[in-house]
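worker-03 picked up job from queue 'complexes'. Input manifest follows; two sequence lines, order preserved.
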Amino acid sequence: MKKIRLQIICKHCFFVLIHFFSRLAFHRKSFFGLYFLTLALSGCADIWNNPYPSPDSGKNILYSAFAERPKHLDPVQSYSSNEIQFTAQIYQPPLQYHFLKRPLVLISQTVSNMPTVRYFDNNDTPLPADAADTQIAYSVYEISIRPGIRYQPHPAFARDEQNELLYHALTAQDIQRIDKISDFEHSGTRELVADDYIYQIKRLAHPSLHSPIFGLMADYITGLREYADILKEQAKIQSGNTFLDLRNFPLSGVEQIDSHTYRIRIQGKYPQFIYWLTMAFFAPVPWEADHFFSQPGMAEKNFTLDWYPVGTGPYMLTENNPNRIMVLERNPNFQGEFYPDEGMPEDVTKGLLQDAGEPLPFIDKIVYSREKESIPYWNKFLQGYYDASSIGSDSFDQAVQITGQGEATITEEMEAQGIRLETAVAPSTYYMGFNMLDPVVGGRTSEEKASARKLRQAISIAINYEEYLSIFANGRGIAAQSPIPPGIEGYHEGEAGINPVVYEWHNGEARRKSISQAKILLAEAGYPGGISRKTGKPLVLYYDVTARSADDRSVLDWMRKQFRKIDIQLVVRSTDYNRFQDKIRKGNAQIFEWGWNADYPDPENFLFLLYGPQGKVGNSGENAANYDNAEFNRLFEQMKNMEHGPQRINIIDRMIAILREDAPWLWGYHPKEFALFHAWYKNVKPNRMSYNLIKYYRIDPELRDQKRNEWNKPVLWPTGIATALLIFILLPAWVAYRRKQQQSATHQTA
Amino acid sequence: MLNYIIRRILYALPILAGVNLITFTLFFVVNTPDDMARMHLGTKHVTEEAIWKWKEEHGYNKPLLYHETAPGLNKFTDTIFFEKSVAMFAFDFGRADDGRDIAHEIQSRMWPSLAIALPVFLLGLLAYITFALTMIFFRATYIDFWGVILCVMLMSISSLFYIIGGQFLIGKLWHLVPISGYGSGLNIGRFLVLPVVIGVISSAGANTRWYRTLFLEEINKEYVRTARAKGLSESAVLFRHILKNAMIPILTGTVAVIPLLFLGGLITESFFGIPGLGSYTIDAIQSQDFAVVRAMVFLGSLLYIAGLVLTDISYTLADPRVRLE
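worker-03 finished. Artifact:
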């Protein structure tokens, strides 16, 4: 309170003094006095540019921002990273990734033991773990959750003295009086049970929820597709009543064993299913919440489960105004999770194990402000009003310098502010694909195919992604050698990892083959000097891209230049994203660019992008290049169900060798993410696969307050100068006005 | 006058229907219902079945404008256009594709827009007219000359530059106000200072020159000469006579935009993090949310028509010779 009063007094002082000095400024001698006094005044003020309420100063709050409003916070629908950053703090799927261990390790989030999987044949006979894939008819995952986990306080759980749910028979008038969830007087909680997980799995098939993974999961979870049909019929029958009580409709693929144990039945063998158990799609949803939000009048006030999540996680959403601010606060019922006490050897030196064994979470509240533009976001980060920031290309040179060895380090200016840089290669790949159905770059006959392969290899050498990253991405990325990014099984460092079609190993580093080698390949493909041997015409290729801004023109010019290096003319066909997708679906594109972010850290999640039956044309799959190699497909089918280990790696190596030779993609690059953190931000270890990391972070609010005060003292002298300047300009005008008025009066008198 | 207003409101109906039809056609030329479904379902693991279900759920599984196989009048009524348009004339805007109630969203977002647009409008009007009258008062002197040069300079600078420059100087270098953001209750004041100041300054050049031109046209008229001959001071001539007589063009340029103040400004709101309506339409276009685009275009047309009716009414107040019949 004292601080606020002081601030108000200071502000009053400022305006009163400005007024006083303005009057003084009429006297010329006082003008310089004004300058120096306002200069002196600037030293005695508190900070004025704090965008947050003053009472929040010094509190254990993390300040972050979001650019795009999340569309869905319902765990059955949220899939984009801007949605998961919220849902991952609120909902608890059974598993999670270890915070410190690398490569990523799956650990429990709510389970008492890691799930067990058993295999069965068509006669329901149990099979051994090493049974052949062809024998396995279905797999059963048994999941036991820890007792004692409780939901966040919520009115959906509130009960009256008769133990009846208090807010489950609301009228439209009752809801009319409510503006936010906290307006409900009472709230309650209850223990997490296995049924809540089952309820959510059923929700994947809900006819009005449109889960993005329904199609995928319907292929695996027994009975899910048929279940969707049943629910659809039921929804028609009870039209008008929005609540479909899924408890009344059993799903054959999930089974409750006891209050804390459930089983999921998967068709065949799908070892990657366990990774899906880290995602919010498999988080628990209490039926009470679903029913509560389904009451008439709720949706009209935007009270939906999609907008007000109800979970067991470390945080709960207490304010949801996605146009301005979203606030997560500590869930008072969260307990039983601790900071890890083991990690990688370097974690000790980095101080990442100092909090070992401490109960989570450390931060009380997270305030996300909507910041649509990067410039204000960056400037507020520098002022200490955001605790972390990514680096835009505009601010890259201000934040990062590249050493002689090519290593990215923080600039001196940033270092003086105590800001530190963390970098990590994302589990993503951005590639340029060839449509293998195209006669020129894909080929139809075996002769054409051989020729097209040479053409693709020549182009692979010519497009210099190292140069691309240096010019257009400030070096933030690594040129890819295959679809598999670092950190994923099957990725190799050093000489063993290079793509021999494009690179040579020279003096301990990968070196791109020369353009002359590319031209030889081009001639072997039937285009010596870029002229078709068959037709005698220059080779023209078509590059399909989504509509580009003027800024991207340089990228396209650069791309044309790369093709010109081997005498190929590149025509850019720019279109909007809808038409672009349409071309890819119909196989009308020739060369295109695309990207993929991993769902889980398994090579299957990258290699399936080139699996024949996943072709876009005909199968509407994810294989945009429509690449179809029988040997690759066979190896993929073998690899996808194998346990991790050298045997699997060996098969992956063989698959990658086929891909490199066939070159259906230019392997492009894996982006490297740079993030800046203030000195008061602790326990940061990049992990692009996990989103539930806030519970591990720690903030030093005292240091933050001290730095904010230091960095944001109001500078008042320019205001004084501006006022004086204005007076200086207006004074002659005022004198002229008076003179004119007097002349008029004199004239009148005369 | 009442008859006139009723007539104008009736004229508005076909205009609104036409605007609605044009919006519908333009939107669906660029985006098909399949594209909309893909945009909302995401780019991963999306099946044709999921797309069909989404369209069915959101009412986009019907023909756009003409249902060939439907009987009788249903050929026109059993279409996306008809079903999505009729409700709007009853101000039932429905739900955005993310499930949010559009009317609720408009209600909550129009106040922050107004909090910026109204002070900019009022202060701007006051400042521009004052500045223009000052230049007229000192016409043909150095003040008028440099004033016009200043106006041309202000006109020549992009509004984006004012925003970035203002944020850089006042927010970042001098730390006088928050760079961006928005508060609640009385706390919003300090977030409004910078966008309002920038809003007023960025439009000062063009508007001041416009008002100066209006006043210059008036200043040589006979009633001004008569006023001066009566011995009125120059300030009395300017404020009592010239300003009043220049009111019709001033009202034409200002009253029509008053209802549109609710719709806010796109760039200002985006850069200052103001949760207004300015960016709502653009966000909707980007996310291919036809429900929001349709509602906002309808609302924009409606408010514009309302603005024009208000302008006509304001003429009768400013000039007793004007009668609305």
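worker-03 released lock.
Chain A touches chain B through 64 residues (CB under 8 Å).
Confidence is low (pLDDT under 50) at residues 1-45 of chain A.
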